[in-house]
Sequence to fold (305 residues):
Amino acid sequence: MIGWDSGRPARSEREARKWREARVIISGWFRLDSAGETPAVPANHLTFRLRTLASILFLLLLAFFCVAQNSSAPQGAGTVLRLRVRVKVGDATKGLSRKRFFLIKGSLEQNKTLVDEMLQRPFISRDCFYRALGASDRLINWLKENDCESVYCRELQPNDVEGPDAVPEFQTAMTAGEKEFVSRELARKWLTTNLPEPLRDGFYKGHQLGIEGTIKQAEALSGEKVLSVMTDRNGTAYFTDLEPGTYTLSNIIPTELGSTSLMWNCEVKVKQDDRAFEKPFLIMNRPEKNVKCVAVERPLPICKR
Fold:
């Protein structure tokens, strides 16, 4: 038996059956003659049908990929709040980077007790905290240069532990590390382990305790989880998958800026159709155009000597 595929003999009855089924399907397009040997249509018509078939296959593939992309999108995803934090110092304005902000369910009125408590809470500045521990001016300046809350926020450089600008606390820890590790490089790498714990991260841990306590109160009050984000280097952050409603935006712990502290407690209304590409929710320390919320700015406390 000679098959339709260029006269090659069929190798089995099963294969021949498959060919017959294929011919039935293909004949609808190509209109093969009854013998199945040659097309019963002119070549130009065959070319047209081939192109039509290719177009339909392309459209089917395109539809498949569109469906696949749509199905991969999160179902029932909530709205997005794009936060932008800017601060003005003198005539210069910049984004406030690496600062955490929190979104508490409920209006300012509903969270009034919580907000009042945050505003009345005693605040200890970084300088006062470290001066109370007897820290050197060089360590305090080292932390201030990159707005650090602990010694872990930036990598130690050789000039931090040796030379005229070395930090005394780092030098002492380095000496202890050399005795322990018998290697200057290892001593520098693990230097923070030989610093007293309060100097390492006592200021940071104190802030975290205050934040955790406030979050527990907020969640007990609203019955909803408190959300948090950290701003990027441009002062931008995104709260995603939000339920529509009214929220209180806060930094909970005052942010130090020069000789002042900044405290934001802002009411935010999130709508069903809010999206990340729309205008950001802009907050600042000055009442300028498009600013939605202005910080409460206070002078830093004077450190006790």
